[in-house]
Specification:
It is a single chain. By secondary structure, the chain is α+β, with helices and mostly antiparallel strands. The protein contains 4 helices and 10 strands; from the N terminus they run αβββββαββαβββα. It folds into 2 domains: 93 residues, Homing Intron 3 (I-Ppo) Encoded Endonuclease, Chain A, CATH 3.90.75; 53 residues, AP2/ERF domain (GCC-box Binding Domain, 2-Layer Sandwich), CATH 3.30.730.10. It is 20% helix and 26% strand. The strands form 4 sheets. It has a 3-stranded antiparallel beta sheet. Strands 8-9-10 form a 3-stranded antiparallel beta sheet, covered by helices on one side. The longest helix is centred in the C-terminal third of the chain and has 14 residues. The protein is elongated and about 70 Å long. The protein starts with 7 loop residues before the first helix and ends in a 17-residue tail after the last helix.
Length: 175
């Protein structure tokens, strides 16, 4: 059973996907002992993503959404548009290359300025920077955080970053 290839039809025999909530629940059938209606899988504490075991193999729920709805797994990565790893509604997911996914990253936990790509230097000036294709581009040094933030936001737009890039990670549950 573990060597069986997961198809859309097989997935739908085992799981129900609610497009409004993004939640997978088990379907009771002859092939599984899972209970009907119980939310499938658990949160992987190392990644924060929900994992679901189907046919003896573990899958990320956000990848299963594509198989369930579209009939195939995403070719590259899956981006959670609003940065909430538990929000697996199709409207919150998009296929993305690694670079596209990085262009919609939440603000880093260790960010001290509150603005992605803006750093306070020892001389009390703010430097704005951006990474494009692995290359750091310095946008300038500014006397105030507002000017540095404007420079960074302008660069985000110029280089096609997602509008959610640099926003706070959303942690509250979906209602």
């Amino acid at each position: 059973m573990a060597n069986q290839i997961l198809t859309q039809a097989i997935l739908k025999e085992h799981l129900h996907y609610c497009s409004e909530t993004g939640v997978f629940t088990w379907i009771k059938n002859k092939k599984t002992t899972k209970r009907n209606g119980i939310e499938a899988g658990c949160i992987d504490i190392s990644t924060g993503y929900r994992k679901i075991g189907v046919l003896g193999k573990q899958y990320y729920a956000h990848r299963l959404v594509f198989m369930y709805v579209i009939g195939r797994f995403p070719i590259n990565q899956t981006d959670h548009i609003n940065h909430d790893r538990k929000d697996n509604r199709l409207e919150n997911l998009r296929e993305a290359t690694k670079q596209e996914n990085m262009m919609n990253a939440p603000i880093r936990k260790n960010n001290s300025s509150g603005v992605t790509g803006v750093w306070l230097r020892p001389n009390s000036k703010y430097t704005a920077e951006i990474m494009i294709s692995g290359k750091k581009i310095t946008l300038g040094t500014f006397g105030c955080i507002t000017a540095a933030s404007v420079a960074r936001k302008s660069a985000d737009i110029k280089y096609g970053f997602h509008e959610n890039h640099g926003q706070q990670l959303r942690m509250e549950p979906i209602t």
